[in-house]
Amino acid sequence: xxxxxxxxYLLGYLxxxxxxxxxxxxxxxxxxxxxxxxxFVLTRNIGVGMLAGMAVWSFMQRTGWFPGKGKIGRGAGASxxxxxxxxxxxxxxxxxxxxxxxKGRFEGKALDDLSEAERGEVLAELRANDxxxxxxxxxxxxxxxxxxxxxxxxxxxxxxxxxxMTLDEAYLILGLKPGARRDDVLTAHRNLMKRFHPxxxxxxxxxxxxxxxxxxxxxxxxx
Length: 223
Hints:
The protein is mainly alpha-helical. Helices cover 59% and strands 7% of the residues. The chain contains nine helices and three strands.
């Protein structure tokens, strides 16, 4: 009965889980397990195996790296938005938003690995140094922790104007390559809006970026 209950609980958790985030945890867990097994096999000492696993976990938490990280950000079915301080990825299939910090105190750290206190520090840094990055970070917070605001949202309203979007950024946001045709742009835009429209749990800012990317590309490419 205990096993059945645990199985039902796990199924319920998987049904509610963010698949993008779950995939990250599975990748990290596989490396920790591999380090534990390697340490144990080499020394026949379970304590050494545990230390090896802990060392690998600490390394991933400190650096933000995990297996397959480079593949998640820009694979098929994913697009990205990059600012001076932040690199964000939008997964078209799962609707997950992930990213890592490019500058600041937590440079190199994955957003999913930030604690509640660290999120506040990152938001303050972004509002002071990267207005567009701050808006993207707020969009990520809306997605992973809808009750994060606690009166903090308005404090970044005057962080400064965002710079104009470039063609390269527009292609990146829609997950397209230069040379894409009008129909490709419209299809990519439609698919993204299904996932990131505010009515679907996205945010006004993300939707505005997706719309801006579509409009810019349609203005600059032929039929």
